[in-house]
Amino acid sequence: MGDVSVIGSGYVGLTTAVCLAHLGHNVVAADIDATRVELLNEGQVPMFEARMDQLLAEGLANGRLRFVSDSAQAVEQSHFHFMCLPTPQGANGEADLDALDAAMEELGDAFPTGSIVILKSTVPVGTADEVRANLLRPDVAVVSCPEFLREGTAINDFLSPDRIVVGSTNDRAATDVAALFATLDAPVLTMSNRSAEAVKYSANAFLATKLSFINSIARICEAVDADVLDVVAGMGTDNRISAKFLQPGPGWGGSCFPKDVAALSHLARSVGAPAPLLDAVLTANNTQISHVTTRIIQALGPRPVQPRIKRESRVGVWGLTFKANTSDRRDSPALEVVRRLQASGLTVQAFDPTVTEPITELPDLMIAGDPYEAAAGCDVLVILTEWEEFVLADLEKTAEVMRVPRMLDARNIFAADTSQLEGFAYSGVGR
Ligand code: UGA
After folding, report:
1. Residues forming a β-bridge with 317
2. Considering the entire predicted model, what is its pTM?
3. Which residue among 175, 191, 207 closes a domain?
4. Which residue, judged by its Cα, is nearest atom 31 of ligand 1?
């Protein structure tokens, strides 16, 4: 089994490290954050992710996995080097490659002769070619192997992928990288580095397009008295369309879609192939966040009396993360809705299973200890993240503690069965 280094032990890096160790490889993972390295070596997982603690414990116990804070030390002992560094959004929408550039600069001389650098983070098309050109190490191959992990199901997505994409100009390196995943039951698609990089951006942009599309249809359905869930059922049974990734919501977010769609749009403009559709996908998402915010404000009462209502009204929020089963709030539509409600003068109190302390992004947001405390005294309750806890909540008790039992279910979690919602003025999205 190959010896592997993983540079960057954040979300993607840690998943890659624990899963490759699980597949039988010897993995040394590096991170510049010494505290994180220490915690990981003690088996403590710094994020909320199903099965991560189990695989981390397994790798540490069987000695296949360890963490260091010195990246050079990690690569010197390895043949494969997975670069899993953050590529955040830059000032003009472009991807910021500073972390990757700095690591390549630092590690350039440390890579053993004939070893293979593998770009796992999402990077703009052409990055691998640039990395290769700047590296000045013709003996070291640069392979693109984009990740398709979803937060919350990252381990399963890694171990049961739909496909593995390997981009390379060097056939032997491509074969060696594909062999790392040989025990997984998934097709390996080999192509150029540029095509592999384009696959990743295109997949995320397409999924975001699907979401902005269905949220637009949801708004139309509300206006024409149709039910978006029936529309999804009717459309999704067409196997050219599929019902996956067609659940309307308060808008989409997270650390990937917003930055990747913006980066692809930036790339499109910079190569003279503008893609207005991508800009519309971003605009439509903002429209959905505004639409949900407006619906909450409108639920509080008719327009002429709103200034008084605003001063006195209280909104309860269930869910702050950008989706369920993660503790990640980066680019969360829920936070944006709360921010806009507060800007309208409303008092907001929220519960999320992963949030126990006040959050720095929204210092005036009251954080409740349970769903009922968040609903207490409220004039409307809004569901912004689809946590299982909310489906299982005692709705009778919820209605009792509210000033007015109204609910806007922006994730349609109760859409399938509204029988428990007696006593609530209830509405979902797109219905
Ligand atoms: C996304 C992609 O799904 C992964 O394939 C990719 O590897 C990852 O980005 C990345 O580039 O690293 P993730 O950001 O974890 O994964 O989140 P998703 O599960 O894709 O959800 C994104 C947003 O869409 C969330 O706000 C979610 O609530 C929303 N969503 C998703 C909906 O509103 N409706 C749906 O039907 C599905």
Report:
1. 350, 382
2. 0.95
3. 191
4. 245
